[in-house]
Structure of Stage 0 sporulation protein A homolog:
Amino acid sequence: MIQIAVVEDEEIYVKQLTEYIRKYQTERGRSIKVTVFGDGEDITENYSGGFDIILMDIQMQFMDGMTAAEKIRQMDQKVIIMFITNMIQYAVRGYEVDAMDYVVKPVEYFSFSQKMDKAIGRIRSEAKEFLMITIGEGIVKTDIADIYFIEGQGHNAVFHTLRGDYSSRVTLKELEEKLIVHNFFRCAKGYLVNMNHVEGIVGSDCVIHSVHIPVSRTRKKEFMNKLLQNLNMD
C-alpha cells in the first residue's frame, strides 16, 4: 500500500486532491491510503516517517510548506515531496529540500496523474528497506543499506551512517536480531557491522570507510566466511 500525506489548508483543494487520488487509484489499480493534515505544523509534530509521498501546499497559515519540508528532511531523506502551489517562484526553491516536482493550482487531473506516475515509479525503482531510529524525542528514518556499522556505548547504540551518526537507546542484541537478515554481523561484543560495507581486514580489524573495527578472535573464522561469501556474490 502506498501512503500519501496531503498537507493543505484549503478545503476545496483537500477535496479535489483526495478525489483525484481515488480516481488515480481506480485507473491504475493501486492501493493508496491518504492522510490529510491542515498545516505544516500538524505533519511535522511527532513525524513518524511512514509516508511514501507528501503533497505539500506552500502557503499555509501557521507553518509554510517550505519550512515543513525542511523539518521533514532532517528526519526523513527518502520520502517524495511534491509541492502544491499557485506561486511558481516559491516552488522552484524545491531543490533545497530535494522536492521531486510541483503541481500548479488550479490542479488539472491529467497533469496530476502524470506526476503521480513519476513519483510511484521512483518508489518502485528505489524499493528499499528502512529502519526507524529513535533519537531523543524524535525519529530518523534510515535506509538500512546506508548504515555502515553500529557501536554499542553503554545502554545506547551509535549508528554510523551515510548521513552521519545517530545515538539511540537500544541494545546491540535487539539490533542484531533485527538486522541479521540484512547481512549485519556481530564482529565483536560492542560492534555490529554491515558486511556490505566491509572493505577488508588489517591485522585483527575489519575496515569500513577507513574506520578500523575490531574483530574478536572467537568470531574471526565466521567473519571471514561471511566476507568471502560477500566477495563471491560481488
In short: The mean pLDDT is 88.
